[in-house]
Amino acid sequence: IEQLVRDTAGKPAQRAELEAALAKLLVQPATFEARRFACQQLAIIGTDASLPAIAKLLRNDETVGIACLALSAQLSPKAIATLRNALPTSSGQARLQLIGALGNHQDAQSVRTFAGLARDGDAATANMAIIALGKIGTAPAHEAIAALRKDAKPTLASAVADATLIEAGQLAAAGDTKAAAALIEEMLAP
């Protein structure tokens, strides 16, 4: 199958057939390992066509991680919306994985949700949401982190510092070293 993935590069009809076959592996009674393998391959060749099958995996704590893997390289708005739509009904480790995946996708539409989750009673959820805000890097995300720097709980201080450093790194990479330095100075101020 891995060879077929390589061989179908530049052959859209054959790749679509292979994607459909891999999507069929995502349902029961396929073993977890078979589904994991299919998700690894879909991370390479997956399109919006496989989203319905992947979305079902996002609803299960056991398979949410491999579903996030399958969507890790898909940058289509539908793929990101699939992750976003799964978040409200998630909990525990599944929620953490979805927040992480949306942060990695720098999903600007999740900023408001993450700003709320940054104040969640569950420390792991709050920390993950704060880091995701740092990765998103938009002006509203920066504003949310700035607000957290002013009044975050001590248990969240490390995540706020990490998010601030991510922000500063993004600003420096974009050539705005003055703003990056100002963020660092603000973070270090007593």
The mean pLDDT is 94
Question: Roughly how many Å is the radius of gyration?
Answer: 19 Å
Low-confidence stretches: none
Strand content: under 5%
If helices are DSSP runs of H or I spanning 4 or more residues, what is the number of helices?
A: 12
Q: What would you call the shape?
A: elongated
Major sheet size, sense and barrel closure: none
Instruction: Give the oligomeric state of the chains in this entry, treating copies of one chain as homo and distinct chains as hetero.
Output: single chain
- SSE string: HHHHHHHHHHHH
Distance from N terminus to C terminus (CA atoms, Å) equals: 57 Å
The strand count comes to 0
> Which structural class fits the helix and strand makeup?
mainly alpha
Helix fraction by DSSP (H/I, runs of at least 4): over 70%
What does this structure look like?
The protein is mainly alpha-helical and 190 residues long. Helices cover 71% and strands 0% of the residues. Helix 2 (12-24) runs antiparallel to helix 3 (32-45) and helix 9 crosses helix 10. The termini are far apart.
How would you summarize what this structure contains?
With 190 residues, this protein is mostly helical.
Please name the defining characteristics of this protein.
single chain, mainly alpha
What layout of secondary structure does this protein have?
Elements: H1 2-7, H2 12-24, H3 32-45, H4 51-57, H5 64-71, H6 77-86, H7 92-104, H8 111-117, H9 123-136, H10 139-151, H11 157-173, H12 177-188
Helix pairs in contact: 2-3, 3-5, 5-7, 7-9, 8-9, 9-10, 9-11, 10-11, 11-12
